[in-house]
Amino acid sequence: MKYLSEFRDPTAVEKVIEKIKDISRKEYTIMEICGSQTHSILNSGIDALLPENVVLVHGPGCPVCVTPKEMIDTAIELAKMKENILFTYGDMLRVPGSKESLFQARGGGANIKMVYSPFDILDFAKNNPDKNVIFFGIGFETTTPANAMTILKAREMNLKNFYVLIAQFRVPPAISAILNDPFNKVQGFLAPGHVCTVMGTEEYIPIAEKYKVPIVVTGFEPLDLAEGIYMVIESLSNGEHGVKIQYKRSVRPEGNLKAKEIINKVFKIGNQKWRGIGEIPESGWVLKEEFEDMDARKLLNKKIEEIEETKEGCIAALILQGKKKPNDCELFAKTCTPLNPLGAPMVSSEGACAAYYKYKKYEN
Ligand code: SF4
């Protein structure tokens, strides 16, 4: 299959790994930002093939993992009001809130439904005018255009009972936050190819310049990832910094102009809280004033307090910042498993802890 099988060819991957071994003369710590990249690296065994002096750490690019607890608590409160129905993606259902997950709340009678596409909700809202229909949408820049389109379509349909609870994250400010940390060890980044397919690479150039780091926009197949790692190490070996594109079959420097136009019609850049990390300035998309009437939080008659406590022993926050790995956690694969997740990175299919459980639990 063109554009797929050739990027999963073990011989081609091994050749790039050999090139990495040839040029890796120092210690290198590289972060892949996206949870899908983490899963592909572990699934293909690339991390095990790399020389010991090349260390991969896993970044905060799993939207379920970084959605703050109070957002989940807010969604649950909304879903418990009898006049509301809340729709969300399946992998949000089991993420722990401060007291319970959406799944547990649904078992207790909260009105929560799973959805694959937010567009499906619009007809439901049209056919159920006596209910407030709420879309709990989270994600990075990849899902932002679809969420924006849904909101535009709801406005076009003149739906008065459609609301959104949005937690949308932007990758570049998170990279800056990691690099600003005085204890940071990350020397180079694999930026997420799908995010850059939408947004392009322009936002990454000033970061690479300011912090003198290589950032390589990388795809998700094993050969993509091996090449991305090689390109980062090549830059580090040559004392170079800047932004390069490995995922050229999808990413253009300017991104998808139409998608960006749709985002900018509905959203503006705002501060965003990340679970375990805290608020990062300008790291989110928030509704523009003309769409604030759709903000579901207006339906609540109380404010949900910010809660940042984690289960004792859970080191999710350190994992999301690349300071620890899942198998450094004492609870990993013992008391914390996908069936009994104690932190969000074990819940989400994109979470680093879930990836280690799937591919490396017997190494622990
Ligand atoms: S293994 Fe579980 S408890 Fe440990 S950091 Fe991951 S989510 Fe938290």
Task: Walk me through the topology.
Elements lengths: L9 H14 L4 E7 H10 L1 H4 L4 E8 L1 H4 L2 H12 L3 E5 L13 H6 L4 E3 L4 H9 L4 E8 L4 H13 L5 E8 L1 H10 L7 E5 H7 L5 H7 L2 E5 L3 H16 L4 E4 L11 H10 E8 L3 E10 L28 H5 L23 H4 L4 H9 L4
Parallel strand pairs: 1-2, 1-7, 3-4, 3-5, 5-6, 7-8, 8-9
Antiparallel strand pairs: 6-11, 10-11
Helix pairs in contact: 1-12, 2-16, 8-13
Bound molecules: iron/sulfur cluster.
The site of iron/sulfur cluster (SF4) has 14 residues, from helix 14 and helix 15.
Written overview of the protein:
A 6-stranded mixed sheet has the order 4-3-5-6-11-10, sandwiched between helices. A 5-stranded parallel sheet has the order 2-1-7-8-9, with helices on both faces. It is globular. The longest helix has 16 residues. It is built from 16 helices and 11 strands. With 364 residues, it is α/β, with parallel strands linked by helices. The mean pLDDT is 93. It has 3 domains: 123 residues, Rossmann fold, CATH 3.40.50; 150 residues, HypD, alpha/beta domain 2 (Rossmann fold); 48 residues, no CATH class. Iron/sulfur cluster binds next to helix 14 and helix 15.
Concise synopsis of the structure shown:
The chain is an alpha/beta fold and 364 residues long. The chain has 16 helices and eleven strands.
Name its key features:
single chain; 364 residues; alpha/beta; Rossmann fold; 3 domains; six-stranded mixed sheet; five-stranded parallel sheet; binds iron/sulfur cluster
Ligands, ions, cofactors: iron/sulfur cluster
What is the fold named in CATH at topology level of the largest domain? Rossmann fold
**Mean of the pLDDT scores?**
93
CATH superfamily of the largest domain: HypD, alpha/beta domain 2
Which sheet architecture does the biggest sheet show?
A: 6 strands, mixed
Head-to-tail CA distance between termini: 36 Å
Radius of gyration, rounded?
Answer: 21 Å
